[in-house]
Specification:
heterodimer; A: 95 residues; alpha+beta; two-stranded antiparallel ribbon; 4 helices; 2 strands; 61% helix; B: 270 residues; alpha/beta; 8-stranded mixed β-sheet; 13 helices; 8 strands
Chain lengths: 95, 270
């Protein structure tokens, strides 16, 4: 919600669509220029997170979900790890 | 039954990505579960035109190479929840696409979506070839201009020989002509080929005529497919094209304010 509000205000500040275009490009390209020099790190990040979690918990191979939102002042990285619930743990224990 | 549609042209800059975004969004507006895929590896742009460029995490190439699951790479549109974008990689090159990998992803998407719209890169190299390879139908985007029409003819040749449909003897890929950047005023002055001329040369059915319109640049500026601009001529023309794509009979008409001569010309075709 707060994100939506922010983008709402940001957009209303842009007087016309050309300003919006310039702003979108500036944000995107500033991120892309940095990413271009490095490796495609997100798959590696995902793999590493899964490995670390697996050290402590029993989780499946596709239980990590990564979301990234590139912003102007800040970007957000959202990591969701799906853990087995009580029923799944119980079933596993019984098996 | 899911339908795979390639948006292709041979020539660059004729409006493939604009048309992919507009047709994809138009189908979703009509309640069809739709995904648009960017095949232009290394020069990704469909994400910008769709307005989801800041949310790209994983891409088509990550999925093909097994680094991410398909559902992780799909970005759900914030305006329509039955519309998704599968972005491509901005850092790899076209060699990262394999026929087998593309086939697997398309098969998986067929289970989830009604329409799979493949945005082809310009040219006739690997990316363009793979964008059309699994297509059931094709939208050939053409400008009323000699090099564009020539390249469209070349692409039509490829559609009838270098596709899965053609190779398996399942008949040709059904191709539709989408005429873009059409300027009725210039046609009236005899400065631009008219729609009949182009239909006569390419002899494929007409899906729509998108008029040259300031709404297209405006839509791209803000990352909103132009079909959402329901008041614009281009937006309306894409809406009509989408209706025809799903089998409705819609009269071929554009730009009421300039109708006169142009509509009379068109009625003769229809």
């Amino acid at each position: 919600m707060s994100m939506n509000m922010l983008s709402f205000f940001r957009r209303s500040r842009a007087a016309n669509s050309a300003d919006t275009a310039k702003e979108r490009l500036q944000i995107l390209l500033s991120h892309e220029r940095v990413d271009r020099s490095g490796p495609d790190y997100l798959p590696m990040l995902q793999r590493d997170i899964l490995e670390v979690v697996k050290r402590y918990m029993k989780v499946g191979g596709d239980s990590v979900d990564i979301k990234l939102e590139r912003g102007d002042d800040l970007s957000t990285l959202e990591i969701n790890v799906e853990l087995p619930g009580a029923r799944a743990l119980h079933a596993r224990g019984a098996a | 039954m899911a339908k795979v549609i390639v948006v292709t042209s041979g020539k660059g800059g004729v409006g493939k990505t604009t048309s992919t975004a507009a047709i994809g969004a138009g189908l979703a507006m009509r309640g069809k579960k739709t995904v648009v895929i960017d095949f232009d590896v290394g020069l990704r742009n469909l994400d910008m035109i769709m307005g989801c460029e800041r949310r790209v995490v994983f891409d088509f190439i990550n999925v093909i190479q097994g680094d991410a699951k398909l559902k992780q790479a799909l970005i759900t549109d914030r305006r329509l929840d039955n519309l998704s974008v599968l972005p491509t990689s901005q850092t790899r090159d076209k060699d990262a696409l394999t026929q087998e990998g593309v086939g697997k992803v398309i098969d998986e998407l067929r289970k989830e979506f009604d329409y799979i719209i493949c945005d082809s890169p310009a040219g006739i190299e690997r990316g363009a070839h793979l964008a059309m390879y699994y297509a059931d139908e094709a939208v050939v985007v053409t400008n009323p201009e000699v090099s564009s029409v020539r390249d469209s003819d070349r692409v039509l040749g490829l559609l009838s020989s270098k596709t899965h449909h053609a190779e398996k003897g399942e008949g040709p890929v059904k191709a539709h002509l989408l005429l873009t950047r059409y300027d009725p005023a210039r046609v009236a002055r005899g400065e631009m080929m008219k729609v009949e001329d182009i239909l006569e040369i390419l002899s494929i059915p007409l899906l729509g005529i998108i008029p040259e319109s300031p709404a297209v640049l405006k839509a791209s500026n803000v990352g909103t497919p132009v079909v959402f601009d329901a008041k614009s001529n281009a937006g309306k023309a894409y809406e009509d094209a989408v209706s025809r794509l799903i089998g409705e009979q819609i009269e071929m008409k554009i730009q009421p304010e300039r109708a006169g001569l142009f509509q009379r010309l068109l009625r003769r075709t229809a």
